[in-house]
Design goal:
Blueprint lengths: L1 H31 L32 E6 L4 E6 L5 E2 L4 H12 L5 E3 L2 H4 L12 E3 H11 L2 H14 L10 H13 L6 E2 L14 E3 L1 H14 L1 H4 L6 E4 L2 E4 L11 E9 L3 E9 L5 E9 L3 H19 L1
Antiparallel strand pairs: 1-2, 1-12, 3-7, 4-5, 6-7, 8-9, 10-11, 11-12
Length: about 300
């Protein structure tokens, strides 16, 4: 009985001793954790993993509206008021060229009328000259020639067999608007074939960045032989060198098509298609920027697009 009692006393003493050590250990751990005023224990320094800003996250644009549209997936990867209806200026000539390709016979030659020469700007054309359809269309697109655009609209009257008021562009513009509806460009309509402002308060055409991206994508896919010239710095035809109005062709080697636009009401507009690799075309459009800002805006969007596909 004494042995049993002594064993019980030893067991109780051992239990008390273990509990005491446990309490002291817990108190020390709590203190080292910084809880309730305790100082945090020193920890081994750890390096943070590299963190990349998400593409398009911290960009600044002058444009009122912009879009980056991945033609391969059919989805937008960046949008800024993409459906806002804004003046198009010479982006209008994308549709002008599309209608010419669809309605003019390839063998036809277009005469430059005096009414065309009277349009704003001078691209080197002269009244009475005869131009091949393809050459005049390329000259119009690369140099944004208002003379060429109006010449096409006037020439349509002879294509359609109309002799009354041959300088009128109304029938040609009607075809432009019909094509816009056919392509479901819901924010787009045209008042003239050039995009020149009609007055101080009325633009020559209106549309959205989304519509422009879709129109340029359609035009390049359907008529690459015409729009391919817009990737070049110059186009030579009829003893005239037509210079590209899109200065990004010198800075963005992946451009496969593009068109500029500028007017008092529109500000600066620009739309391009770039190949980001492995046959993956992307359309980028910016509307309502400034004359210089449009190039900065689209270049920024282009660079962010490359980052997007790099870290996708």
């Amino acid at each position: 009985m004494k042995i049993l009692a002594n064993n019980k006393k030893k067991s109780l003493a051992t239990l008390i001793l273990l509990l005491s050590f446990g309490f002291i250990f817990s108190l020390s751990a709590f203190s080292n954790s910084g809880g309730e005023g305790g100082k945090p224990a020193a920890r081994a320094e750890q390096k943070s993993p590299l963190v990349f800003d998400a593409p398009f996250k911290n960009i600044s644009l002058e444009a009122k509206s912009a879009i980056v549209f991945d033609l391969a997936s059919g989805k937008a990867i960046f949008e800024l008021n993409p459906s806002s209806q804004l003046p198009l200026a010479s982006l209008t000539k994308i549709m002008t060229a599309v209608v010419v390709e669809e309605k003019f016979p390839k063998w036809m030659k277009v005469e430059i009328p005096l009414a065309a020469i009277m349009q704003e700007g001078d691209s080197g054309l002269s009244a009475g000259e005869l131009w091949k359809i393809g050459d005049l269309a390329r000259a119009m697109l690369i140099s944004s020639s208002n003379d060429a655009a109006f010449a096409f609209a006037s020439a349509f009257n002879s294509v359609a067999g109309r002799t009354e008021n041959p300088a009128s562009a109304a029938d040609f513009v009607a075809l432009m608007n019909r094509k816009a509806r056919e392509l479901n460009l819901s924010q787009t309509y045209f008042l003239n074939p050039t995009g020149l402002d009609e007055s101080e308060g009325v633009a020559g055409a209106y549309g959205s960045a989304e519509d422009v991206a879709n129109l340029l994508a359609f035009a390049f896919k359907k008529y690459p032989s015409i729009f391919g010239v817009t990737r070049k710095e110059f186009f030579d035809a009829g003893n005239i060198r037509f210079k590209n109005t899109n200065k990004l062709v010198d800075e963005v080697p992946l451009i496969v098509a593009g068109k500029t636009g500028f007017s008092a009401l529109a500000g600066g507009n620009l739309a391009i298609i770039v190949d980001v690799g492995l046959g993956n075309p992307v359309a980028i459009a910016a509307l309502g920027s400034s004359e210089e800002g449009r190039f900065n805006d689209v270049k920024t969007l282009y660079e962010e697009t490359l980052r997007y596909f790099q870290y996708k």
